[in-house]
Structure formats: C-alpha cells, structure tokens
Amino acid sequence: MKVRVKSFKDKSELKDYLLSLGNTPLGAEILSDKGELLLLEVSGIDTRAANILKQDAISVGGDCAVPRKASSFEKGLWTVLLILNRREAGKLIEKLKIQPFGLKDLSLKLSEVLRNYFKGEFKLSYKGKELSLKEPVVMGILNATPDSFSDGGLFFNREAALKRVEEMLSEGASIIDVGGESTRPGALPVPLEEEVKRVVPLIELIRKELGDNFFISVDTYKSEVARLALEAGADIVNDISALQFDPKMVEVVSNYKCPVVLMHIKGTPKDMQENPTYEDVVKEICDYFEERIEYAVSRGVEREKIVLDPGIGFGKRLEDNLCILKRFNEFKVFGLPLLLGASRKSFIGAITGVKEPRRRLPGSLAAVGATYYKGAKIYRVHDVKETYQFLKLLSAVEGSSC
Hints:
The protein folds into two domains: 11-117, no CATH class; 123-399, Dihydropteroate synthase-like (TIM Barrel, Alpha-Beta Barrel). The protein has an eight-stranded parallel β-sheet with strand order 11-10-9-8-7-6-13-12, with helices on one face. Strands 1-3-2 form a three-stranded antiparallel β-sheet. Helix 14 packs parallel to helix 15. By secondary structure, the chain is of the alpha/beta class. It has helices at residues 11-20, 25-32, 47-59, 68-71, 86-96, 103-117, 158-171, 192-210, 223-232, 249-256, 281-298, 318-326, 346-352, 361-372, 384-399; strands spanning 37-46, 63-65, 77-85, 123-126, 129-132, 137-143, 175-179, 215-219, 236-239, 260-263, 306-309, 338-340, 376-381. It is globular and about 65 Å long. It has 15 helices and 13 strands.
C-alpha cells in the first residue's frame, strides 16, 4: 500500500475525483461536502444560545469553540467559532431552525453566508453588454491627471490617453478606468468643472474612436461627473467613498442602473494617512461594506450591480494592507464581485525597498497572486500586459485536468 497527499481547489474538483475512484454520484456528492473545513465566527450570541449551538454542532460531527465564561453559564454576549465541514453545516442549519434564543435567525444567516461565500461566478451588465467574471479580469488605469502618484501627466494629453487605451485593450484589459482627480495620500480635491473637462470629452473620444465592445468605469466621487460620464459612454461608477462624499451619487447610480464599485476609505484622500488605526481591519471593512450595501440597496441600487473594493492604501497602515491581502477571502461573505487595487502602491515600496512606483511590477504581481485564490475578480492595474499574462497562467494551472 502507498499513501499520498491529495489537494483539490473546490468541491467540484473533489467530486470529480471521487467519481473517478468509482464512487456513485450520490456518494460523491455527500463525500465532497466533507472535503473542506469551515471556520465560522458568530458574534453577539447569548449564553443560552452559545451552549445549544455547541451541543448541536457536536451532534452533527463538528464543534464550536465557546468561551469558558459562557460554558459556565455566565450571562453575556459572546463570540464563538464554529468548526465543521459543508455537510455538517447543512445539518446544523436544519437543527437550528427549531431552536430558541435567536438560533432560528442564525440558521438563516448561516445559509446566506455560505451561499455567498461559495458563489464563484459573477457578471457585470449594462446597456446590453455583459462581462463575465467567472475568471478574474483586468481593469486598466487611465489617469487623466497631472499629479497621480505613478503616472501623473503621462496621459493628460488626449491623444496620448487614447493611444494608451488602445494599447491596454490590446494587452487584455476588459475595463478601462478613467479618472480625472488624483486620490493619492495628501491629494487636494479638483474643482468639479476641471474634473468634468478632464474626463467627459476623453470618454466621448474613446467611444468614438475605439467602439463600445468594452467597459469604461469612471473613477469619481462627484455625482455630476458620474452622470456626465455615463451620458458620454461610461458603464461603471468607481466611487472611492462608497457613495458617501456626495449624497446625490446614489441617485445617479440608481437612476442609470449601472454597476458601481463601493470602496472602503477611512477619512479623505487629503487626510486618510494621518495615523489611521484599526483593531481588526478586515472586520471593520466588512462592517463598513454591510452598512454601505444596505444604504445603496435601500435607495434603489441593484444589489447584483455592486462590486466591493477593500481600498488598499486608503487610510491603511502597512500591516493593514498585508492583512487585507492575507484575509481577502473573508470579503466573499457578501456574494459580490471583489476588486483589488494594489498596483504600484507605497506599501509595496515599503516592503521591497523600491522607491520608484513604475518599478514595482514584481510586488504588484505578488499582490495579485496573494488574492487570486481568495476570490478577487477584478484587478485594477497600471501594468495590463504583465498582469493579464500572469492571470492567464494562474487560470491555466487551475483549469488543468490532472
């Protein structure tokens, strides 16, 4: 006899392997649900519910880590950790449906979270166009600004900008992100009229010269810029403030029924790097996303049109950015496409010692690799060709039959 270690990327791949061994389809379905361990944190649970949850988890084959004070029936609200596989989770959810002390509501929440977490295919649609996000795509950055941190001034001229868009499309970009205001740390706001002048005619030119078979996003937090950009041919609003800085922005997104990127930021570009602090950066971003999604949907934004961006470098310390990359999969609980914008950012320079942003390609690709297996679906980057080829190889490895 021989013993070998096996690994599988997901339930589907494990199921295929089990079928290849001669298991029945039903047996393969049941066993594949046992192939992945889930660690589910439940917070705000009272003493009675925590103890019932632990017993029910054990009864289905899993477990639940409960604080000693809760196990000793001290009154309070606690945080516990469920430890089980997908099959056990399904059984536990059924048990909780008939339990008191809020556990019936917890069963619904667990169902929603697991359904969202394991959702792997998304698409963006607008005005008859669709962009599949089954595999990650590249969003190419076009800064129509004189002062962006990496390429400020390079594409301020419209002819140069148009040439760069054509180049990025040929290199594999699926989305072109056009911005007319730098949001680098310490940046001052650009007057509305100036931002409109930089962005709107450029989008019109891109559409006129290069057609309509690709997506354009407008990187702005100003509602009037977004409205005029959408009229000029943009498809997506990319708002660093998640609809906060301009109260009219949510109306524009809702009225146009366009996709929107909601990004996490702490403060404003001018002051966001002035001593930002977090107790748990990923938890706080998740809480923020929950609130902003609810805000957007309650005001008419279609939930399936929302993309989430944790905002690398926007009010984050070095350790915060690394934690976001390491725990990126935790943002999957919302069941929405995830965007990563880490290209050439200063935290890469802090780690690698590379001061010149344009020389930070290796570190930028490392950030792509760190999140590829954790659910990122859109990569906002300066280096389109290299990122696209990097993703193509990762995708080929993941899709190989072996």
